Fold these 4 entries.
Entry 1:
Amino acid sequence: MISAEIVSTGTELLLGQSLNTNAQYLAERLAGLGVYCFFQTTVGDNPVRIRSVIEKALERADLVITTGGLGPTQDDLTKEVVAEIFGLSMERDPAVLARIEAFFRRRGRPMPENNIKQALIPAGARIISNHLGTAPGIIVEAEGKTVILLPGPPFEMKPMFEETVAPYLADRTKVSPGVLHSKTLKVIGPGESVVENRLCDLLQASNPTIALLAKTAEVHVRLTARAPSVKEAEAMIAGEEAEIRRRLHPFVYGADEESIAAVAGRLLAEQKRTLAVAESCTGGLISHLLTNVAGASDYFLIGVTAYSNEAKGQVLGVEKAILRRHGAVSPETALAMARGVRRLAGADVALAVTGIAGPGGGSEEKPVGLVHMALVSHDKEEVEELQFFGDRLTIKEKTAFTVLNRLRLYLTGEGGNADRPG
């Protein structure tokens, strides 16, 4: 077993000015290559702290992969620090320098003098070609350890990893990239703690492992199996998946890349039903999610964002008496909106939402996060009160996902089983 640590350098990461997508990508790829990543560390552009972090990483890992600090400026110091740790001299590589010069020549620009620094390589190191930038990657093998240095820009780092680092590691581990296989089940309704309670004994398993990932409006249940082949890993996952679906029924709506909008849309298409949507507090987000799915025009007829009371009346036909007596955020208004948009579009099914997304506008009687949703069809009229918490965008997203899930449950005939997710 090879253990690894990912070290990300860059003060901009510590300040939150850049999102560290490199670490996420590398951790996922290492797992697939049979390399166990036990630690991830982020450090700023300071040579003393970079050295401390890399030395610590070398104490607890066989392999250290760094990103960042390979540029031409004075604060790009990662390879110099690594060379110093292992007592290696820095030597100018003529082939690397020629590639850097050619890089600028192709762009019709003179090469700045400080780019020569990027051609300095620790003695005996292996070079990883960079076809998209000027910073070569470096593999240093010394004292029974391996350090792989990669540039920070993801569009440079990822091809370098795929072309050179992945084959290098695959050769060392003798593990096929396909032997670690994952499947993610997507859950809407119960929160993370409820899901954990229902699956608590399954979460102790070691192969396949089961992990929970809380999202804004969903909980993801990731199953990961290690096996000699993908087919065998899938078979191992299948048994656990069936049990998880049974325990969480009917709240698992899909898996992996499936979205709730795509699942609901597929059901509409299979049943040859059409849909119309009226939105207030979500501001068109439900329609946006639906129309992000290819082929949505087969079932999605119209989306109306009726934010003002005037629009609710003029476009959707919500009576002034309803708005005056019950207010815009009420079950009566939601139902009238759904009826109105269904009538307007001639749709088989209509959805409507009205609520208070905040941060202002709430009251003791109608707090921020209060939402009323309605579903209307030829055989059903359903109104539900929902209460969400969070900032404005969170409330909008939770509303949109919940409403689309309610549509899914209606279309599968399972709405009555979903009233008490806890």
Entry 2:
Amino acid sequence: MLAVHCRHGRQLPRGAVVAGTARRPGPANSGGDANSGRLVNDGLPVGRRVAYWRQRRKMSQQVFADRLGKSKSWVDKVERGVRRLDKWSVLREVADALDVDPDLLLGEATPPRPADEATADVEPIRAALTRYPGLLPTTADQAPTDPAGYRTRLDHADAVYQHARYPALLRLLPDLLDDAHDRCLPADLRVQAYRLTTQVMVKLGAPELAWLAADRGLTVATGTDDPLLEAVAATPFGQALRAAGRQRAAFETTITAAHQVAPLTDEPGTTAGRSACATLLVQAALAAAEHGDPSATRDLLDDAIVLTEPDGPARTAVDAARVTATATLGDHRTAIDLHQTLTVRPQWPALPIEHRAAYLLDVAGAYLAAGDAPGAARTLRAADRLAPPEIRVRPAGLAVLTETLTRSPAPDPHLLALAEAAGLHGAW
């Protein structure tokens, strides 16, 4: 019953420390400033640049360590990203030993990787979102947007997203966003346009644009007094908040919306209401996992499970979220075991291509965190077969790919070819 499944009014502990600004384990979680090893420009972390320039200087790790007055183990951990160069003084010493400018190690003096199609197309999205609807002038000869035609265009854009064709989607979105300013359009269509925008902006590492789009969609939805539409709009809002590192706000927003669409009663509710509630509970669970609360994560996912049909794709989606949450909480081996059970089920292919590929990217991070670079490589190849842009376009995908190659004693030739196609270059 919904009284059980959406019972959580709990708060995240205020003393807890947010686990990070991204939801992915391992290399995709890199945060902080440039000194802490985040990916900039060419996709290489600082440690890999250190390794690259050490090899260019024909130095072994031991010789390099001797020059620095450090141990060989220290050098190895820096190059693998286990130890961060988070002090400018240490970074300067490393750069001096390599006879390079520190900015070169940070990537700021490195020619940027050629902008891919997706990156170039983010700016029109920014421009479309900057045009605030209420300030747009209207003219007497301006024809209203045809709802039926707009719905067809949105359905096409949604299919493009589900097939992870992000560059193509970015070409469609500016016009859809411009037309979404037409308040004569049904609210659900406008919410869907903002939802798609939010989701692809999260994918491409533009959390501020994701937040703006999600806020627009939620504003439209809350103006309708339709709890179900509000729940639909709250889901991407929760995703945007999580991408921005605001796990507590994401948790509270999604839990509140879940209670709105499925109040604490014994009524079974509608199919759409149960589906929306399950989706919101998943978002809340992922936020709780990122915040380091395993109890809330487990309870929320258990509630979401009961709201879904045993053999339906929604149940598979919740099970996939459990794998991601388990890895986020640091239990990487259990996450891998759950993953291996999940992907052999007959329901697995029922998930959209984008969903499966993004999930596999999470799992690749779990393999890396468990010290299994070959497992990460296999998983990345599987994700690339499903949806190449997940690995070749997304910053998170490029990060996991780079780290997998970095940690592989004998890099997979298929991954090397993938890195070349993605525009990554480095000494693997």
Entry 3:
Amino acid sequence: MPLSDTSEPRYAEIARLMAQSGDWITPWFEPGKPFWGKPPLSFWAQALSFRLLGVNEFAVRFPSWLSMVATVGLLIAFARTFFGRQLAQWAAVVYSSCALVYITSGAVLTDPFLVLGTTFSMTSFMMARHYPSLFWRYGFFVGLAIGLLAKGPLALVLVAGPLLLWLLPNIGGRMVQFRALPWTRGLLLTALISLPWYVMAEIKTPGFLNYFIVGEHFLRFIDPGWQGDLYGTAHEKMHGTIWWYWLQATFPWGLFGVGLLLPNLVKKGVRAVIIKPLADSAQLSYLLAWALFTPLFFTFSGNILWTYLLPCLGAFSILMALGWRKWVEQSQWQFALNTRWIAALVPMVLVLLSLFAYVSPDHFKTEKGLVHFAALQTKAGTPVYYVDERPFSARFYSGGTAELLKINEVSAKLDNSTLPVLLAIPKKRLNEVAHVLSVPVQKRYENKRYILFEASPGLAQTAMSIVAN
């Protein structure tokens, strides 16, 4: 799949600039403009991958896949400890084949690193009492540090929220779980890993902390039309949209889960199906708090994306596997037989989509084909000028050489150039640009959004001088 605008090539370009410049403190949105929207962990991993594997799509996506594989490993360890080996395997299958998880594992995003951190913390919290090794006892705090360096203070909320939701109904009986962790040393470890970067980032580009902490973590969520975003646009949605996103993110398993739950609720009642099992099992109630907190937290937020649900899908997957296994046992069906094709649904759809992208990449919002065509058909070093707007994919695939040209600058650029000029003009602005063209142009390439024209001002000026003579 090509990197398609906007998120993937935007983050890929930030990582490319980091790998190119060697600046490992401040991610740069473009030369001279710092990117304050996210901490650097994902950019560190992607830039390092560029250094090792070259600047290409596989290299920039590979760290996301590694993060998701590590997350699956943590979920398997947790589920195997409390529910057995077979359940752990199927929970991993459910998780890995949820639409959001499968897509995110091959996408250039910061979310795979956030979910690795929150999953490490949430699994370590329960595992520390059963396996009091250094890995699990301090894993909770390492997970917090990973989250802080991947997404920021939101990671603390997504870990503390489920814990409080689980603790409140039975504080006395569940505090023993909290005492299994070394809180003083652990929080010190979290601070030692994560805080130095925050300090250095503020020193290097003053104003970062105010924008990132206040803007990105408060105003973004409480103001649906927040206008302070320096790097994109607000995603204004109706309150409660997160639950519609939940159905998309968990597809196809969420629909099956609802289909299994509702008939049982009608037949046996809430007490028998939900309340009693939760009261009998601290692990089940813990998973439910983990699975529900994130969508509940974002229910009254209007500025959201479906990727925000990723941290809760691990717990959902274990609960889904438990419910599915119980239904299969009651129905006397083979568990593997009934999950095989359901688990394959999302991967098969993505394979077909990838094949389509390979055969016809210009149907996607990417400038890969146009930039590569321009590089092959013209002299080396000839830049492409994107008129009016310059997509992130153009910046990434051109290695930063694609330039931006405003409509009112086109005429002057053509008049002052003695060499052919490549203009990538948005289809929606063709009429506007046509009025300011001062020389003939020739169509060379067309994709979903742009048409590439070649203007030859030098030839036009020569022809006019001959006619004049």
Entry 4:
Amino acid sequence: MKIMIITETFLPSTDGIVTRLTACIRWLHRDGHEVQIVAPDLGVYEFDGAEVKGVPARALPFYRSKKFALPNRVVKKYIQDFDPDVVHVVNPAVVGYSGVNYAKKLGVPLVASYHTNLAQYMSYYNLGMLKWLMWWYVRRLHNKADINLCTSQTVQTELQEKRFERMHLWKRGVDTEQFHPGHHSRKMRERLSGGKTDRTLLLYVGRLAAEKEIEKIRDVLEESDKFCLAIVGDGPHREELEKHFEGTDTVFTGFMHGDELASTFASSDVFVFPSTTETLGLVIMEAMASGLPLVAAESGPTKEQLTSERNGLLYDPQIKDDFKNTVCRFEDETLRKRLADQAFTDVAAFGWEAAAEQIRDLYKEAAGVKVSKTAENSDTVSEERR
């Protein structure tokens, strides 16, 4: 098959969406398919043999640290030139608007996948009164697709309640070879802990944005001197966070990738994930594969991956200080090691092959649906002409 992936985010950015896409693209290549990627032009023009077609990108006023590609007619040209069997628009919002509409106008089978709760994020940028409009806009784009995907059962239920159509659950996965406890490094631990290697090292990895609620972690450091913290990633909220954590045992590293990121996970002790807005959080699985227990908010998507008291601890965002009190339970090293061992065991069977096979089959299904619709339309026209 010839598969075009149009995405709002791609390399060199690193997040759960990019992780999922790169893993599946590699598998699709091994399975004999041709892939072309359309993404914001950030200087990457090839991945694993697939051409990356850039769309001019710029920072938006309310999110200066990341560049977005706006709707652009060049997307139509890219689709026409590549002539794909199927177009997959990932997280349609900005350049994805062009992907959805041009794919439909050109009669190309269309798959769309939902990864980010944009409506919920708006509250963190003082735009909460427009949440209804964002839901309307995103639903309108998705309902043009032949097949829609999301990454958790909880989100699938929510989207169906909001009248999103043709929803499928896209399986999750993790690279259990790259993320593994065996990548522990004493040198990395010294770097992440600021030399305080005897402390229990808390780790946060992800985008530094207001909706991630990273500020909550400071309460733990003020409550107990047994912890230190490493914050890995970058984003629009970094400057505010550096001020917020000033005077605490916190190290900011910026972005990390590949083997360095794998070593970061394996060299830490506890992964902390305060966010209450996640649709899946693949970083949770990367932490588990690295042998880390977790503290995360009790929510539907998170509970699909974590079982409290088994492989991590869940906190209740509605209870004051529950995050702080839950993390502080990891002063108990016995508890930490027990949950860490179980986290590693629970995720060991996951890989990306099943998710990639599934998306290939859905691409074929979408193309088949389109062909049958075309055939039905031809029959109707023939009947009318008679």
